[in-house]
Amino acid sequence: MNHNLKDILRKFRNKKLLTQLFTVMVAFSGILMTVVSMVVNHQTTATFLKNNNLIYTNTLEVSIKTLDTLFSGFHNSLTHITYDASIVDSVVTPKPLNSVANYQVWSVLNGYCQETEGMEEIYLYIRETSQILTSTYEKCSLDFFRERDLVDRHFASRPSTVLLKSGRTTSIEIYKGRVYMVRDFPLNGKKGLGTLFMKMKSSVLYDALEAAQTSYSHLLAYDNDFNPLFPGMLDYEKVPEGFIEMIPGYIKEGKNTVYSENQHYYFCQSNQTGINLVLLVDDMAFMPSSRMVLMNSLPYFALILILSTLLSVCVLYLSYMPVQKLKKMVSSEDSGGNSADGKNEWDYLTESFLKISNHKYQLDYILSNMIPKISKEFYFDLLNGKPMDIPYIQNILTNISSPLNTENPCKVITLTFRDFVEPILRHQFADSLNQILRRNSDGICRYVLQQIDDSLYAVIIQFDADLGYSKITDFEIKLEQSFFQSTDDRRNGVLLEIGPKCSSIQNVSFSYQESLERLARQKYPSQNAEEKSVSTEEDSVKFNYHFFQLQMKSISALIMKGDTDSALKKALHICHTLPHDGNPEEICRAYEYYRLAFLNTLASYRITDSDEKEYAFLFDPEPYSDKCAGSPICMQEFMVPFCTAAVNLLSEKYLKQQHKYLIRAKRCIEENYADPNLSLNLLADQCKTTTSYLSRLFKESFGINFVDYLNQYRIEKAKELLLSTGKPIKEIASTTGFNSQQNFIRVFKKHTGTTPGQFKSEKVHTN
């Protein structure tokens, strides 16, 4: 036995593992039970509060409706009093204080006080004579009236709390802690001839609110200005100072309850009288008792104990028992026991220790399963032209154990199928191509077969560096013959194309794109397809204008997706990967094609000039000297900043053209271009902006004003109608929104250089 390992095992003999395990499990269970108790306590309290929120909200609504009903009844009583003939006569034709007619007024006022329980006293103020008549048969002038301040205050300031019903307005006022209902009649305010002051019995109003008062809740009533309605009966000191002033703000925010300092505040405002009720509820009264929390927690405690016991047994079996065996084994060896038994124990323990090393093999297994996915994504990005540096490509190729390298030239074979070919046959054709390549590739090339989607396969073929053109051509001919012989009569559903040769795997996307173009021409042939096919000595990637047009499509697509960084990387990648080992004149011509393709793309977005200094050089008619035009290095140095500026300008203009107003305006033009009344003012109204701002957006984004943009769109629609229909020019002019045939012809010639008739004749003759 290894002596170091023996020393470690002897240390285990002195450790009371069972005691430590028991202590840890007890502590773990205790912490878990404490957490569960806190959670249960919180959930129980939250449930109580949620249920009581609904109860107290309903209580508050019932209380406010009760008050509204009471005040509405008193309002009706005041209305009836103002309709009484003696009351009306007393204010219209006032009598002296000692007049016998006043007895009829006293009788009416006293009668209503006797009939209505909530009325304590009623005063009638006659404005013309400043006389006061009360329901208690008092008569005096205003100067000697005991509650003169009430009358003066009523006329001095407009009441904030009013009740409007049936076209009659009654104000609710607080005076010396009492509630008064006041009515000017027959008109309100200073136009009234008399005023009735009804002094309410506070006990009647308080009784309506008493039901909501408990040992842990308090209901308080306020007028519209949040002045206490019953200062002598309700304990308004329960509300913290300054809280009442905050309630109007809460109401504006749509809140009807606020929690503060262990209390819930419910508030409600009457839509009829403007009276505010505030209900205070002490949340501490809803805190669950320890007994309730314990009862709710018992099932969880039992579950925790069971799980802790099971966990203890598992840990005991997995850790404590092997240590016990180690102790016995060490004791047996120290005492000179049977070596065979000790060897068996060590075999068992060795297997346990070796489990650690198995993790490495598990990790290797996981990585081996990930490699196909990594490989597929890498080849997909490579074929679609994602910019990658040579060291990065080499690193990935090494890690995925690819047969390809970064040095030798490549071609791409693309395989697709017509729609009627079944999926199972597509896989068979791909397998057939793979087998043919495996049989014929020795000593000629290395390859990787990649499935792009359900109907497209791509094969990256990398030839040996010293392989001649004739051998490559023979290999391609043999490959096509073998493949189509294997597909026999089914070849009509299979399409195969071989792309041009590119200098390295870094540029394999060039061959892939050209191969797809050839597949498309084969799958969807045009009338002049034969004219486009050009015979060359060697089928290599041609850096002509068509090639750079294809690259600009992918760069533009990245910009439209908002990925300007990737678009710039791709543009610079193309600039740096153009070969410099060929004819300098052809290389410089390729850079010029690249520049023209960029300018053509900018022009398609109506970008033909720029006032900004950093972009102005893009549109220079003589961008470089004659000496530079013959030097590939000089041309590359020019094209790097050119590509950077062009991509940034295109991205900037494209983003501007995606302004929400422009999108809406373009949609409106597309839907209403046939309307001759379509104007910038109409579009501005549709976009909810100004005509000047919308006009500026058109000019900045498209380089032309609104009228030119609209006319261009109409002319394009007119061209379609001229070529696809036999309608007369007058009808086409009307259909595309022109108000006259003469105006249509004038605008058409301005934009195309020819008249509509000449345009149609030239196109028909060309076809």
Structural description of this entry:
This protein is an alpha+beta fold and 767 residues long. The chain folds into four domains: 48-284, Beta-Lactamase; 340-528, 2-Layer Sandwich (Alpha-Beta Plaits); 543-653, no CATH class; 659-766, Homeodomain-like (Arc Repressor Mutant, subunit A, Orthogonal Bundle), CATH 1.10.10. A hairpin with a 6-residue loop joins strand 10 (263-269) and strand 11. The longest helix is centred in the N-terminal third of the chain and has 67 residues, at 17-83. Residues 663-762 form the HTH araC/xylS-type domain. This is AraC family transcriptional regulator. InterPro entries: Homeodomain-like_sf, HTH_AraC, HTH_AraC-typ_CS, Tscrpt_reg_AraC-type_HTH. The chain crosses the membrane at residues 21-40, 298-320.
Give a short synopsis of this structure.
The chain is α+β, with helices and mostly antiparallel strands and 767 residues long. The chain starts with a helix and ends with a helix.
- What is the CA-based Rg, rounded? 48 Å
Helices and strands: which structural class?
alpha+beta
Q: How many structural domains does the protein architecture include?
A: 4
What number is the mean pLDDT? 79
The helix content, as a percent range, equals 55-70%
Q: Report the CATH superfamily of the largest domain.
A: PAS domain
What fraction strand? 5-15%
Oligomer: single chain
CATH architectural designation of the largest domain: 2-Layer Sandwich
Largest sheet: 7 strands, antiparallel
> What is the spatial order of strands in the main beta sheet?
3-2-1-7-6-5-4
**How many β-strand runs?**
15
Keywords: DNA-binding, Membrane, Transcription, Transcription regulation, Transmembrane, Transmembrane helix
InterPro entries: Homeodomain-like_sf, HTH_AraC, HTH_AraC-typ_CS, Tscrpt_reg_AraC-type_HTH
Domain HTH araC/xylS-type: 663-762
Protein name: AraC family transcriptional regulator
